Structure formats: structure tokens, C-alpha cells
Amino acid sequence: MSHSLERAEELYEAVNQLIRVHQFRDRDYICCHDVTVAQCYALETLVKRGPLRLQALADEMYLDKSTTSRVVDSLLRKKYVLKALDPSDQRAVQLSLTPSGEALHQKIHQDLISEEALMIKNVAPEVVDGALTLIRQLTTAARDRLGS
Amino acid sequence: MSHSLERAEELYEAVNQLIRVHQFRDRDYICCHDVTVAQCYALETLVKRGPLRLQALADEMYLDKSTTSRVVDSLLRKKYVLKALDPSDQRAVQLSLTPSGEALHQKIHQDLISEEALMIKNVAPEVVDGALTLIRQLTTAARDRLGS
DNA sequence: CCATTATAGTTGTCACTAACAACATACTTA
DNA sequence: TAAGTATGTTGTTAGTGACAACTATAATGG
Fold it and tell me: Nearest nucleotide to B42 by CA–C1' distance?
């Protein structure tokens, strides 16, 4: 039991460090592209999860709908996102990327992936594969825990 | 080469998800304790890296010194941090925790560790140990990359 | 079928986050 | 000692994030 707490502590530290470094990198690599980190994450989510309603987007991003509404606003102003009415529900909106939104996302995504590739270029492939599995497992565990 | 890019892409996704979930959890578990996430991170850094100058603290946190100065201000107002002059340099300050800062940090830290323990209670110990090594390796790789 | 209740988004407000620039002060070195 | 450099603080601006109050639309139930 005390062993499992030690493990928890070490994992907490390690994940924290990883998060800091990634956040810092994101600030560097995203913000020079006309969008902020949060805006970029919204773009990413819309790319991955297809057209979404506002509340659904907020859920995916773990944010309040009001916060999300404002992030989307900024993307609308910059013409990276399109807001269409849902024909089946006059209250709801369908959010999707414009072509220039797609293009921007593509560009940023590619930059970030290249950077990630450089970061792991000296790490053995098996090591990366292992980390992948485990990080996903941890994410699932955390998500389950929060959902409860 | 294309393989390594795929790996980079998957890793990027996986880490991103992990970051979201952890951020969400932090908002929940830290902010009910009289400090924000950033303030808590400053406390943690001061605990781990001992008394620090402002610029050193900013470096550890990957933040600008002005941002850090304000985070520290809020902690000074709440009496969780102590600011002492550096005798060897009248410009510099030595930042450290007050007893109540120590106590608060201890409490939050324990909460977070317990939560982390619950998250991994269904993950095999070897798996956690593996993740730990790999996450650290990735952090180091990322840090080296940014430092350059 | 209308009144109640619930849901989708928006807006007001407040505190915090974060950077950049300009500044005062103190150290350093040429 | 003058010029340059480093340490922190403050002004400013934009963005983040939550909560509550609000409008408008849908769904339900009596």
C-alpha cells in the first residue's frame, strides 16, 4: 500500500514535468501562427471529432460552455470556424472548420509533429511504443476516475 | 522515416489527452484549497527546489519573471510565501514558504497523490514503473530540445 | 394545448494567466 | 566613474476560465 503511494507520487511528478515542458513548447510553437493554444485545441478537436455542437465541443475540451463560446467567437472572427444552425433544433449550432481553418490546423499540426519527432529522435522506437500504451492507459484511468 | 513521424503523431495525441485530463483534475482538486493551479505550482517548485530567487523560480516554471512576480505577490498576500532580501545582492530576493505555506502544500500534495493512486489502482505496478521511466525519458528529450 | 420544465448558447462579471515593454535600482566592468 | 548588465516591479493588453443570469427553443405532462 505504501508502495503504491510512492508510485503514485513519482508518477505525479513525472507527468507534471512532462506537462510543463509540453505547455511551454505549445506556447512557443502555436502562438506564432495567429491563434492561441486554446484556440488551436478547439481547431484540433473539431478536426478530430467532426462538426460539433457547442456543448459537445466544451465537453471534449473539459471546459465550460461559456468559455468555449468565447474561444469559438475568436475563431469565427478570424474566419477559421463556421457556425451553422442545426435544422433539427433551432437552439443548436453546428461548428466546423472553414478551408482556411483546415489549412491553418494542418500547418500547425505538422509543425508540432515535426517538433515531437525531433524530440524523440534519440529515443528507441520500442521505448516510444511502450510509453504510448502506458500514457493511454493512464489517460483512460484518469478519465474513468473523473467521470464517476 | 515515415514510421517515426507516425509515432510522433501518436505520441503527440496521447500526451495531449493526458494533459487535458490532468489539467481538468488539477482545476478540481487544487482550486478548492485557496490557491490556483499556478500558485500551487509555485509552492511545489519552492518546496522541491528550495529557496529561490524570482528569476530562478520563473525559469523553473517556464514563465516570464513578470508573471511569476505576480503569482508570488498573491502568495505573499496570503502569507504562504516569505520574501527575504539576499544579503549578497540588494536587488535579489530569496523566496521560501512560510509554515502555513508548507502546510497547505502538504495538504494539496497529499490530496493529489491520493487521487493519482486511485487512478492507477487498476493498472499493474510493472506497467506504472514502465510508464514512469518512459515519461521521464520523454521529458528529458523535450527539455533538451527546447534548451537548444 | 398550454404551463412547466429542461436544454442550447450568449453575455456580464470577476479573478487569474501570460507576455512584452518600460522602469527603478543595484551590481559589474571597462 | 561611466556604460552596460542583471534583478524585480509595474503598466498594459489579450486571453483563460468559471459561475450566474438571461434569451430562445424544445420537450413533457396535466
Answer: C17
